[in-house]
Structure formats: C-alpha cells, structure tokens
Amino acid sequence: MRQLLHQQWVCYRLQLRVLSTSLFDGLLAVFFPLMFATAALLVYRLNGDEESLQYAGLGAAIMGMWTCQGVIASSLLTRERWAGTLELLVAAPTSLTRVLVPITMALSTIGLYCVVATILWERWVFDLRLEVASWPLFVVGVLMAALSLALFGFFLSVTAVRYRTSWALGAALEYPGWLLCGFLIPVSSLPVWIQPLSWAIPTTWAMAGIREAANGGSPWVDLAVCAAVGCVYAALAAYLGQRLVDSARKHATLALT
Amino acid sequence: MTSVRIFFIGGLMSYRAMFNWLSPWILIPSLVVSPICQILLFAYIGRSAGVGNDEFYVIGNALNYAAIPCLFAMGATIGGEREGHTLGIVLATPARRIPLFLGRALPVIANGWGVAMVGVLAGVLLLDVHIPGSAWPAILLAVVVASASCTGLGLAMGAVALRVRESAVLGNVVFCLLLVFCGVNVALDDLPAWMAAVGTWLPLTHGIEAARLLADGSGLGAVDGLLLREIGVGLIYTVVGLALLRFFEDESRRSASLDRN
C-alpha cells in the first residue's frame, strides 16, 4: 500500500510539474476557457439580470475544469507514443492504470487553477462576486468535480489509444462538454433526447451539486451520484485499458506506424 | 511562370501535407463538429440569457470559426516545415517569397470559407434559422472576404512562428481574442467602447457585421463599406505578415535560429 501511494505521489508530482511548465497544457488550458467564460458573461450581462449573471458566473468558474481534462486526457497515450515512451510504459511491471490515474489527477489540479483564476477574473473584470451560501460545501463540490473528472479522463485516455489523431478527438469534446454539463445553460433547456447524455457525464452531477451548495441546499445526493458515475468510468477504463493494450501488443499495433 | 507554379502547386502541396499526410480524419472533429458545437453553445446561451436571436449567434460563431484554419494553418505550415527539418531547405531556395507564402494562404482561405459555410448551414438546419434565398450569394462573398482577411492575420502569425515555437498556443490566444473583441456574440455597440475600438482593427469584425445585415435582408450595396473595410484590415495584416516574414527570415539566418526547437 505504501509503495502504491509513493508511486502515485511521485507520478502525480512529476506530471503536475510537466503540465504546469507547458504553455499549451498549463497556461492555455486556463486562458482558453477563461476567454469563453468572458464571452458568455458579456452575453449574460446584457440582459441586466443579476440572478442570471450569478448562474453563468458559477458555471463559468467550473467549465475550465472540463477543458483541462477532456481535451488533454484524450491524447495522453498519443503523447507518450510521440515521445517514444508508450512501449516502455506498457512493458513496465506497473499497470497502465497506476500510471494514467496520477496524470489525470494532475490535469484536474490544473483545472483547479482554472476555477480560482476564473473566480478572480469575474471579480476583477466583471465586478461579479459569486454569492455562495456555503463555501465549504462549494469547495467539496469542486474537489468532487476534480476527482470524478480525473476518473472520466482516465476513461477517455484509454479509449482513444488506437486513434492516431486523438488530440483532434479531444479538442472536439470541448464544446459538447460545455454544452451538456450545465455550466452556462440549464440541462433542462437542451432537447429532451440529449439530456440522458448529460446525466451520463459525472461533471453534470458535480455542477448540480455545486449549484445546490451555492443556493444553500444540500449537494450530497448530486455529489454521491457524481462519485458513483465517476467510479463506473474508472472501472470501465481499467477493464478496457487492459483489453486494448493486450490487443495492441498481440497485433503489434501499439506504435500505430 | 515559376512563381505561378509555386503559388498554386506549392500552396496545395503544403496544405495537403499539413493534415498529417493526407489524413482527412482530423478535418471532421476539428473543422465540422467543433464549429457546430460552438454555434449551438452560444445560441443556447443567448436563449438562456434572453439576448439576441439564433441567427445572430449562427453568423457570428460560424465566421469566427473560419479563423481556426486561417490562423492555425499559416502557423502550422512554418512549424510543420521546422518539424520536418525542411524549413531551411525551403528558405534556401531562390523561390520568390510572395508566391511561396501567399500560395500557402490560398487553400487556407478556401478552407476557412468552407468551415464557416458548414457552420452557417448547420445552424440554419439545426436551429431553424431563416435566411432568405436571395441573401445567400452575397453571404458567400462576405464569408470569402472575412476568410481572406483573417488569413492575412494568419500570415503575420506564421511569420512569428519563424521565431516562436508555440504557434499552436499563439493561434489559440488570437482565436480567443477574436471571439471576444470582434462582435461575435455581442454586437460592437454593446461592447465596452475600448473593446469595440480594438475590434474595428481586427479581421472578421466588419465581415460578421456585413453577413448579419445580409442575412437580415440588406443588399450587397448596403454593406459594401463594411466589406471594403474588412478587405483593408486584411491587406494591412498581409503586408505586415510579409514584412515580418522577411524580417524574421533575415534575423534567423543571422542568429542561426531557424531550426531551434
């Protein structure tokens, strides 16, 4: 157990340093959603309704977490392939799960930077002070969003292993995530047929829990469902990851060359 | 004749090479799915906020997304040559630089136009936006002008890519600035005055305004001033881009920084 925790901590710390010093994964992952949040807040500000602005401000603060995870996690294994380290990772006695989870946790940590940056941006640029009834519960909600997104990112990373251009797939997930997870618009305003897809994403539940915390309600049911959905993705990812890697080794297609 | 060949054939080859050696797969998520989703995102934000109408967001965001190929492709052609270790060879050739680089811009303009039109069409179909049939030819023209203008900015970015490694980051930053400053989702009149002033000096701003007026039923004559301003802004960036290319090429020869990565 101690050895596992040590490996996870070392891998997480190393990857967080790598991501934090990358202009693309660190700076841009914060800047890009911040600018989209700005565009959305400019729209919401036009109607002059303070309640709507609070709604959008809260969602805008969280939406960057999706960008940090969804876009980058999809191309994690492709990046290892480009760097020539994928074969080494797969051949190592440490399972791929134990390598990927700390990386997606590091991505979620970049997402937390994004939450803080957006809250400060909203306060300084839009003079928007988020009205949150319970800041401790809000923080619990944000941490649950980070954790569940890390598990979802783990799922994305293994399912995209066979796509040579998985970075493009990841980039294409950005807007659908913002649309489906209830960050800037209520899920109920989406067409009925697409709403089940929203509820299959753990972040939708995390966002609902965060809104409950902000409005003075109890977020625990939403956060429990969020955790459960995140665990389902983690279990699927662990299963699929092993299957896909075994298949790639069997057919000698790991390098995709 | 050589310059014409470099302009057309060289430009087309460079464009094809950009997509990871002829793989059209990345076109679908990057240049079809994403613009449609961006349009839907802001149309739903507009509905939720009770601001504007779907047509406003469809036109704004479809034209904004034309910036992705226009900005990135120009940076990627330089970055791609560097990654392929062919940048030095390209710049060592006696080929004239204007057809060499403007030739690379031509397919990109067509690509930007295609992306924007896919976005407009998808918006019309998915959000039930009505644009009069008579307005379409003029809208096609406005989108061509906006794409060409934006490619001028892309050319300037491509020049900077001679010295800056992170052209993808630069492209994303510029794309975001265009989103916020060009009246994509908030009309210039509703933006803070300083943002509107910045927007008038950026590509897309006048093209988007013209396309919206055309979609609302105005004739081409009513928007010719806007289109001329869009062309003027694009020309300024193109000239600046060519000058920067010349400057950075000379500079990189002097400082041996061409292949630094």
From TrEMBL, chain A:
It is a multi-pass membrane protein. Keywords: Membrane, Transmembrane, Transmembrane helix. It is found in: Membrane. GO terms for molecular function: ABC-type transporter activity. The chain crosses the membrane at residues 21-44, 56-78, 99-121, 133-156, 177-200, 220-240. Residues 10-212 form the ABC-2 type transporter transmembrane domain. One of its GO terms (cellular component) is membrane. This is ABC-2 type transport system permease protein.
TrEMBL record, chain B:
The keyword Ribonucleoprotein does not apply. It comes from the Bacteria. GO terms for molecular function: ABC-type transporter activity. The chain crosses the membrane at residues 21-45, 57-80, 101-127, 139-162, 169-188, 226-248. Pfam families: ABC2_membrane. GO terms for cellular component: membrane. It is a multi-pass membrane protein. The keyword Coiled coil does not apply. It is found in: Membrane. Signal peptide: none annotated. Residues 17-212 form the ABC-2 type transporter transmembrane domain. Keywords: Membrane, Transmembrane, Transmembrane helix. This is ABC-2 type transport system permease protein. It comes from Nocardioides szechwanensis.
